């Protein structure tokens, strides 16, 4: 059972729109960091979020850019690659989650797609105690290469087998990560995981990863 609310998140000098789904009794919340040219309305991220909710995880889908910035980015394609800006926005969202009575007690995971995965990895490096796990879907970890060895959160990299260039970038990133990590290749999938069953595999992998790493341990000798 979960509740859903539209939220307005103050970050720096602006406000970001978000959709917050809180699952009763859950230990963790996953913030989605969308990729190039996308938004909180991404049908792929929303499909994954629904599966995470079903697995007992709360979710926050939010816009990294304001409507005016989205209009500029649609013309220039510049802001989507401004990882420093996106990571700062994400840090503001993490601060907001930590300050809200409904979410302050929840362990936070980050689900990043495409360029959003780079922002998620940078934010995780900057907040080692505030991020419990990271999942990257078709991500661009190369855009956060300077931060990879500082990431401490367990990190799962998911990439399509047919997404050849991005697969190579993720394989290289996996060798750079010092945190516990895994690389999962989805057979027959391209960059957007549009093939039958591909996105479901992504959601299953993410739910398992977050479920293991965001769960609050029970007392010694007692299963959580």
Strand content: 15-25%
Number of helices: 6
| Through-space gap between termini | 20 Å
Please write the string of helix (H) and strand (E) elements: EEEHEHHEHEEHEH
Helicity range of the residues? 25-40%
Descriptive report:
α4 links the parallel β5 (107-113) and β6 (133-137). The chain starts with a strand and ends in a 10-residue tail after the last helix. The model is unreliable at 220-224 (pLDDT under 50). It has a single domain (2-214), classed as Rossmann fold, CATH 3.40.50.1820. The chain has an eight-stranded mixed beta sheet with strand order 1-2-4-3-5-6-7-8, with helices on both faces. It has helices spanning 43-54, 67-76, 83-99, 115-126, 164-176, 198-214; strands at residues 2-11, 14-23, 28-33, 58-62, 107-113, 133-137, 155-160, 181-186. It is globular. With 224 residues, it is an alpha/beta fold.
Spell out the key features of this protein:
Rossmann fold; 8-stranded mixed β-sheet; alpha/beta; 36% helix; disordered C terminus; globular
Show the helix and strand layout.
Elements: E1 2-11, E2 14-23, E3 28-33, H1 43-54, E4 58-62, H2 67-76, H3 83-99, E5 107-113, H4 115-126, E6 133-137, E7 155-160, H5 164-176, E8 181-186, H6 198-214
Parallel strand pairs: 3-4, 3-5, 5-6, 6-7, 7-8
Antiparallel strand pairs: 1-2, 2-4
Helix pairs in contact: 1-6, 3-4
What's a quick, concise take on this entry?
The chain has helices at residues 43-54, 67-76, 83-99, 115-126, 164-176, 198-214, and strands spanning 2-11, 14-23, 28-33, 58-62, 107-113, 133-137, 155-160, 181-186.
